[in-house]
Amino acid sequence: MTPAQPETPLALSSFGADLNVAVIGASGGIGRALADDLAQCPTVAQVFRLSRSHLQSVGNKDRCLSLDLEDETSISDAAAEIKKSARMLHLVVVATGILHVNDQLQPEKTWRSLEGRTLETAFRINTFGPALVAKHFLPLLARDRKSVFAALSARVGSISDNRLGGWYAYRASKAALNMLIKTLSIELARRNPDALCVGLHPGTVDTGLSKPFQTGVPEDKLFTPARSARHLLQVLDRLSPDHTGGLYAWDGQPIPF
Prior knowledge:
- By secondary structure, this protein is α/β, with parallel strands linked by helices.
- It has one domain: NAD(P)-binding Rossmann-like Domain (Rossmann fold).
- Helices cover 34% and strands 17% of the residues.
- The protein contains five helices and nine strands; from the N terminus they run βαββαβαβαβββαβ.
- It has a seven-stranded parallel β-sheet with strand order 3-2-1-4-5-6-9, with helices on both faces. Strands 7-8 form a two-stranded parallel sheet.
- Helix 1 links the parallel strand 1 (19-24) and strand 2.
- Helix 1 packs across helix 5 (225-238) and helix 2 (72-86) packs parallel to helix 3.
- The longest helix has 24 residues, at 168-191.
- The radius of gyration is 17 Å and the shape is globular.
């Protein structure tokens, strides 16, 4: 198993200093790990932790706000509150996603399992929610230096990489997210040339989302949330505006759409 915590402090040297960052989905496994790692970074000034669940600050850099992906008013209210207190953001990460919910939502193995209700749920959380976050948070990105809007996608959302089939709702909702990211990046480049909009594949992470599907995953490929978060932040630190619109794996490799 990979180490539970990164051994060296996070740098984020390409972003500069006095960073304001926001993590949407900060109560989840990867989201919490991202926020924790960012809070320990010496160049980060403030971490906005946003979640539908009630959160408590864990350090003097933290600011906890309510945000429900299924409620656009709560998204716009959170963005307005951040703008009022921080003015601009240098990094926004949408660390949300849904794959299964007990007996209500399970990855489909065959087209016979397709249901409008489960398709709608997957798209509402995996696609519509991040799109509405982008609508209200992209205008908050700093314009005078590198800034990034990133959303957790998945390798299984790659159409060209789909060789196994199945998982219809999850694959399709993440593929749609990838298209949104690409389209958002084009408009963002016109408005804010130093900003990036990218998708991230975190690998297989030991969280509730992947728990039922970890059988057969090599031990060195099953990441703790902390290790995955560190990989993703290091990838973001290496990206330049030329990389905007892409989907990148935890090791920095681009994933074709």
